[in-house]
Amino acid sequence: MNNTVYKDLLSILKNDENIKINQSLSYYTYTKTGGPADVIVFPTSIEQVQQIYMYTLENQLPLTILGNASNLIIKDGGIRGVVMILTEMKQVNRDGYVIKAQSGAAIINVSRFALEHSLTGLEFACGIPGSIGGALYMNAGAYGGEVSDVLVEASVLTKEGQLKTISADQLELGYRTSNIEANGYLVLEATFRLTEGNPAEIKAKMDELTFLRESKQPLEYPSCGSVFKRPPGHFAGKLIQDSHLQGKRIGGAEVSTKHAGFIVNVDGATATDYLELIAHVQNEVRNKFSVELEREVRVIGEDRDIISS
C-alpha cells in the first residue's frame, strides 16, 4: 500500500489511530486467526464510510468490509487492499417502539438497549456475538427468534456508492441468508420495530438464554461460533457428536468437547488448521450419515504463500 493511499485515507479519517498498515487481522477476529491486511480503516460516520468506499472504487482498490468478525475465518495469507472494519459505527437510538442501530454495534448491546427501554422482541439476540451488519447479512437467530422477526428496514450503500433504504422484505431474509452479498450492499444502519414489554420478564428471558448459552457453548476459547448450518431433518452438532469427532484436533483447532457444533482455538490455531478440520468433519459426517454439512461461517482472504527451499 503506497504512501499516497495512506495519506488520502488519513485525510478522510482525520485520525491516525483509525488507520493501520500491514497489521494482522487476528487481532480483530473471534477465532484469533487471520493474516495481515494491507491497510485497515475504522470509519466513525456514514459520511466516512461513503467517502472511503468511493475512494476505493475510483482508484480500483480492493475493499473488504468487516463487522466484528465473529462468524468469520480469514485465511492465513490475509487480505489485499483496504479492509474497512465498522466497529466504531456503533450508535443506537430509540424513537418509541423503534430502535435504529448502526451496523458496527454489537447485537448483544442492542438487545440490552431494548431491555433498558422495556422493549421486547430482541431477547433472542442477547447471546449472539455479532454486529448488526453481520446479523442482517446472515439473518442471525437463536432460541426460536431471528432478525427477520423484528427488522423493518436497512440503510445501505449500494455497489455504486449511493445511499439507499431497503425494506426487510426486499432483503429476502431466509435461514441464515439474505441477498445483501448478491446485491453488493454495505449495511450502514438497521431499523427494528419492537413492542412494549415488562422489563422484569424481558430480563428473566435474557438471563435464561444467557445461562443456556454459557452452559452449552465453549465460550472459554476463541471460536467462530456455530460452524455449520442445520441440515434438513438433522442437527449438525448431533451428527458430529455421533461421528465421534469431539476432541478431534488439527494443529491448534479442536472440535469442542462441550458443543460439537463449535471448533475452538485451543493452542495457537491457524486459519489453515480450522479449514482442514472443517473439511475433515464434513468428510466424516458425509461418509457416516450421507449428510452434507454446509458451512455457516464465512471464509475470506488469501492462502499463505508457500515458499520452497
Structure description:
This protein has 309 residues and is an alpha+beta fold. The protein has 3 domains: 83 residues, Uridine Diphospho-n-acetylenolpyruvylglucosamine Reductase, domain 2, CATH 3.30.43.10; 111 residues, Uridine Diphospho-n-acetylenolpyruvylglucosamine Reductase, domain 3; 83 residues, Uridine Diphospho-n-acetylenolpyruvylglucosamine Reductase, domain 1 (Alpha-Beta Complex), CATH 3.90.78.10. The protein has 8 helices and 19 strands. Strands 6-7-13-11-12 form a 5-stranded antiparallel sheet. Strands 1-2-5-3 form a 4-stranded mixed sheet. It starts with a helix and ends in a 9-residue tail after the last strand. 42% of the residues are buried. The mean pLDDT is 94. It is an enzyme of class 1 (oxidoreductase). This is UDP-N-acetylenolpyruvoylglucosamine reductase. It holds the Pfam family FAD_binding_4.
Quickly describe the structure:
Helix content is 28%, strand content 26%. It has 309 residues and is of the alpha+beta class. The protein has three domains: 3-85, Uridine Diphospho-n-acetylenolpyruvylglucosamine Reductase, domain 2; 92-202, Uridine Diphospho-n-acetylenolpyruvylglucosamine Reductase, domain 3; 218-300, Uridine Diphospho-n-acetylenolpyruvylglucosamine Reductase, domain 1, CATH 3.90.78.10.
